Amino acid sequence: MAGVLEDKDRIFTNLYGLRDWRLEGARARGVWNGTADMLSVSPEWVCDQIKASGLRGRGGAGFATGLKWTFMPKQEGERAHYLVVNADESEPGTCKDREIMRGDPHRLIEGCLLASYAIRAHDCFIYIRGEYVLERERLEAAIVEATRARLIGKNNVNGWDCNIRVTHGGGAYICGDEMALLESLEGKKGQPRLKPPFPAGAGVYGCPTTVNNVESIAVAPEILRRGAEWFAGFGRPKNSGTKLMSASGHVMKPCVVEEAMSIPLRQLIEDHFGGVRGGWGNLKAVIPGGSSVRLLPAEEAEVALMDFDDLSSRKSGLGTAAMIVMDKSCDVVAAIARLSYFYKHESCGQCTPCREGTGWMWRIMERMVSGEADPKEIDMLLDVASQVEGHTICGLGDAAAWPIQGLFMHFRPEIEDRIARYRSRRANVPGATLIAAE
């Protein structure tokens, strides 16, 4: 397989479900190998190794995973410690975690055991989105297998008691936010909580809790097995390791692959996804990290690197590394308007800027698509987006604003031209005569 990462360095060796996903098949691929030895050292050592590896959260925020684990209390007190795995993969375009749960569930379960030990938790919840039926069935079957083999549970052979449970939500996008996820896990309405307190101080049931993405947890055992230096050897500094990356839209072979961080975006598309439909010259834009980051035009996509810092410098983001590729046949204005509707629909309504702003932005975007909008509304829309961004409890307001900001950052002339063409065809629109005369 082309690309930067060699096959011997791949962590997820059953990504496409071509091998046995059950316990025996997982053991043949190295899962559960040396787990007891990794639990024979101190939790501090485990955290130090994850920190040294440079692993950053694979759910989108990119926070240092090992550092996050150290936020938990160092001693077990009256309040239980909990690990919560965020498997509520609701970001449009994102489809990596489901491949882990379908093809390699034991790798995730082993990671849950090791992460629970690192944060001194004896209970772990895997919160999975309600639409993931097969994935939930695979996980539950794998948990039963691991329990019967005494790999997890009480008095297991690995030496750390850990009960793992799978629970599912109702499919709300907002429950991908860790605080809303905790509310839903407790049986309440999925609405984000204010911070502080942070989950490490008061999470699920008011107890110390760590919330991590599926991929972040699943790679931890292999980091400990092969060494932090091995994982840190991939990618640029502060952007190390391997990463599941996907592409959908106008590519020849949409799929999920594991690659080294910092791989050039163009190389990733051409080596793994068959290239852009119609050739690279037919590329119009790429949303590099799921729908909630700003898009990149073709000229920037050609030189961008798939890591946190490079994409951030381009005012976009790695997010979940789920690329949405759009060729020149795509109506990029309509595509962003569709995303605006999604965020308007998924807003929980708790914060006024998000509740009112997402609906307002969607309605204006619909008028931008047809060209009915007034040119002055472009700056007005950007102003409203800036008022929504950064003024909500969770990140949904940012996720709603960034695609719109990215659109006008790179394709504003196209929208202005669309408005002018609409007005030239409609003589009764105020200002149409003046625009036509120009």
Brief descriptors of the model:
438 residues, alpha/beta, 4-stranded parallel beta sheet, 18 helices, 9 strands, globular, disordered C terminus
Radius of gyration: 23 Å
Count of DSSP H/I helices: 18
Global structural class = alpha/beta
Q: What value does the average pLDDT take?
A: 92
Across the major sheet, the strand order is 6-5-9-7-8
Helix/strand order, N-terminal first: HHHHEHHEHEHEHHEEHEEHHEHHHHH
Estimated helix fraction: 40-55%
Sketch the major β-sheet: 5 strands, mixed
Spatial shape: globular
Proportion of strand residues: 5-15%
Cα(first) to Cα(last) distance is 55 Å
Low-pLDDT ranges: 433-438
Total strands: the figure is: 9
Task: Describe the protein's architecture and organization.
By secondary structure, this protein is α/β, with parallel strands linked by helices. The protein contains 18 helices and 9 strands. It has a 5-stranded mixed beta sheet with strand order 6-5-9-7-8, with helices on both faces. A 4-stranded parallel beta sheet has the order 3-2-1-4, with helices on both faces. Helix 6 crosses helix 9 and helix 15 (352-370) runs parallel beside helix 17 (396-425). The longest helix has 30 residues, at 396-425. The radius of gyration is 23 Å and the shape is globular. It starts with 22 loop residues before the first helix and ends with a helix. The model is unreliable at 433-438 (pLDDT under 50).
